[in-house]
């Protein structure tokens, strides 16, 4: 039995050695006689697994969204300083008065934007383009287009641009309004420091961040994905490559990313986009009051049971609130049946009302609740307030 086993082992070893020699020196002999499964293995390229996505890779999301993120180059007319000799009285005595200004120059700015429609509409930050005389858009594939401003909304720091072309444009997909949760993975895409298109990854650190003093209407997504100067106006996308926010600000003491970045939610960007495309501007409701938080100390001094609502600190004369009878010291607790929990909620609720709408304001005056009808006015633009 032992002898038979040794003969079998030697035969197997000689056969494997023979196959190895044939596959190396004469592989075509094997193709003619080997089963198809063996041929497939022999002919498989050595790097057949090189293109397999590694576990945890977000390459698909990046490839889906990156083409729709553009670089924005802005410029503004200006005069270069004249030569210092032109300020010298002796020079002017011999050579006469000459205008002390040089040729026009156009300093450039840099930011990012996102193409959101096949028609060429682009969303970016207002601060990227607010001082620009000329705007140029550069796509990731190298194409460049002149862009024109359709409208802007300084109170959310958003602006809408448009490029006019018959060429096909990449378009990003907008996520649903409530599709994001704390802990979700997000990618920030933009052109930081002008180095070229860059993708950084992080998670959603918080939602609904406000009272940061950045804009009038604040409802930010906070993320630790690296956002740096030049990322402004770029895309914050989810793990499927859908747009969930517009990168707009960072918390930094050095100018670089410290892992605290803020993006405007896609729901706000979509609303601003639709209004600007339709009318060229954003219209919001306004009643003409100054409001503040109700602290425990204020609640005690006003004899309130809790800190819910918004304290009316001032009423603008002849404003909708003044005509309706709202007074300083009133506590606003509901608008059209929607509870008001804090000043930000009140500001957002009133801003969403259409001008001319008659809204029911429930206020607490002393220990008495009352309903007042307020005809909502149109919120003045920042330049008019």
Keyword list:
385 residues; 10 helices; 3 domains; 6-stranded antiparallel beta barrel; serine-type endopeptidase activity; Thrombin, subunit H; serine protease; Peptidase_S1C; 22 strands; elongated; HtrA2 peptidase; PDZ; Pdz3 Domain; 6-stranded antiparallel β-barrel; single chain; alpha+beta
Count of DSSP strands = 22
Q: Count the domains.
A: 3
Q: What fold name stands as the CATH topology of the largest domain?
A: Thrombin, subunit H
Q: Major beta sheet, specifics? A: 6 strands, antiparallel, barrel
Q: Distance between termini?
A: 104 Å
Helix content: 10-25%
Low-confidence stretches: 37-44, 46-51
Structural class: alpha+beta
Task: Specify Rg, calculated over alpha carbons.
Answer: 32 Å
Count of DSSP-assigned helices: 10
Tell me, what's the shape?
Answer: elongated
CATH H-level name of the largest domain... which superfamily? Trypsin-like serine proteases
Walk me through the structure.
One of its GO terms (biological process) is proteolysis. This is HtrA2 peptidase. Pfam families: PDZ_2, Trypsin_2. Residues 276-342 form the PDZ domain. The active site is at 127 (charge relay system), 157 (charge relay system), 232 (charge relay system). The chain has 385 residues and is an alpha+beta fold. The chain folds into three domains: 64-163, Beta Barrel (Thrombin, subunit H), CATH 2.40.10; 185-279, Thrombin, subunit H (Beta Barrel); 285-384, Roll (Pdz3 Domain). The chain is 24% helix and 33% strand. The protein contains ten helices and 22 strands. The chain has helices at residues 2-25, 27-33, 36-43, 59-65, 89-95, 126-129, 266-279, 296-301, 320-324, 343-351, and strands at residues 69-75, 78-81, 101-105, 108-115, 121-125, 134-138, 144-153, 158-163, 185-190, 198-209, 220-223, 235-238, 243-250, 261-265, 285-286, 289-292, 310-315, 331-335, 338-339, 358-365, 368-375, 377-378. The strands form five sheets. The chain has a six-stranded antiparallel beta barrel with strand order 1-4-5-8-7-6. Strands 9-10-11-14-13-12 form a six-stranded antiparallel barrel. Helix 1 (2-25) crosses helix 2. It is elongated and about 110 Å long. It starts with a helix and ends in a 7-residue tail after the last strand. The relative contact order is 0.10.
